[in-house]
Fold this protein.
Amino acid sequence: LPVSHSTAGSCAPVLQMLARHKQYIADNDLHSLCGRIYISKQGINCQGGGLKAHTQQYVSWVASQPEFQGLFHTLWPADGPMFPKLRLKLKPNLISLAGELIRHKHSLTS
């Protein structure tokens, strides 16, 4: 079951947040989770999947964290794993093309 969620806003220190996510996944034996979970000062971005029960449990836990109140997420069924493993890591920016898009928009309006 793939899951995608993201949010922007004020976050707890990102190293502590990353450690909490890793600890929660390990403590709850969410071994089927796979995909990419990126955490930054801007928020969280996840594309991944796993067993339905594992993805629902993880998304519910993330949404219960103070820095992710009002989290937008989607869940939908899939025929099989979409990713070979789980990558949970820090990213300096969740929006890597932001500067490029701003420059391009400016050149179109000038």
